Amino acid sequence: MDKPGLTTDATGLTYCTWRTAAPEYPRYHDHEWGVPVADDIQLYEKICLEGFQAGMAWITILRKREQFRAAFEGFDFRQVAQYGEADIARLMQDVGIVRNRAKIVSTINNARRACELVDETGSLARWLWAFEPEEAERPAVVDMAYWTGNPTSPASVRLSKALKKRGWTYVGPTTMYALMQAMGMVNDHLEGCVCRGHIETLRRQFKRP
Predict the structure, then answer these.
(1) Residues annotated in a binding site for Zn(2+)
(2) Would you list which residues are annotated within the binding site?
(3) Confidence at residue 145, expressed as pLDDT on a 0 to 100 scale
(4) Which of 28, 63, 68, 192 would you label with 50, given CA atoms 20 to 30 Å apart?
(5) Please, are residues 97 and 91 in contact by the beta-carbon 8 Å criterion?
(6) CATH top-level class for 6-205?
(7) Is 50 one of the catalytic residues?
(8) What pLDDT is recorded for position 3?
(9) What transmembrane ranges does the database entry give (predicted)?
(10) pLDDT at 144
(11) Structural domain spans, the chain
(12) pLDDT at 135
């Protein structure tokens, strides 16, 4: 019998159960979720897409990700920072993305804040990775009641507060914990998932910016 949160496939390999929830998830689960990221453009994209997810299912955002990339110039934040009202109007007519004005405005605002942060510190990645939690701070991934809820952590609370202080929006503690999971700052593949050990290896080999 599978442990809670885990599913064994026909080949005998065990994965996090959510991997089976949609056709798009196996690739995302196996090759992307939890892989450490140090590229500023990719990190800005992840922050924005996690913000768009607020109140929605992640699969909705994942299915629209390529349209989001096309709409926001590949999430080049220096380009998005130049957007004005005409761009907001254009994006509100784009059926390929989530047409939520507040979230679109937030994406533009956060692009400007990203420019400021990079100009000040030299790297969005370096600034974000400074919030990587110590081992003792990380929640136990075997705690399914925690993992399947709306998790936060002391580190995600600190990150959220620091970003909000800099004027970023749609960066609450839960959203920032999802970012930390997605960018490899924490490894929340469950114990028993075949990907957990692989991600741990990548995290050990990863050169922090």
Answers:
(1) 16, 29, 189, 193
(2) 16, 29, 189, 193
(3) 42
(4) 192
(5) yes
(6) mainly alpha
(7) yes
(8) 79
(9) none
(10) 46
(11) 6-205
(12) 74
With tokens 């399914």, the residue in question is: 144
64 beta partners: none
- Structure token digits, residue 17: 């159960």
171: nearest Cα among 188, 158, 182, 190: 158
Residues 6+ apart with CB under 8 A from 104: 88, 91, 92
What gap in Å lies between CA 111 and CA 86, rounded to an integer? 17
58 is catalytic: yes
Active site residue 66: no
Q: Which regions in the chain score pLDDT beneath 50?
A: 142-146
Three-state SS string across the chain, please?
CCCCCEEECCCCCEEEHHHHCCCCHHHHHHHCCCCCCCCHHHHHHHHHHHHHHCCCCHHHHHHCHHHHHHHCHHHCHHHHCCCCHHHHHHHHCCCCCCCCHHHHHHHHHHHHHHHHHHHHHCCHHHHHHCCCCCHHHCCCCCCHHHHCCCCCCHHHHHHHHHHHHCCCCCCCHHHHHHHHHHCCCCCCCCCCCHHHHHHHHHHHHCCCC
Q: Dihedrals φ, ψ of 141, to 5°? A: -70, -10
Which member of 33, 44, 58, 168 is catalytic?
A: 58
What's the rounded Cα separation, in Å, for the pair 200 and 197?
5
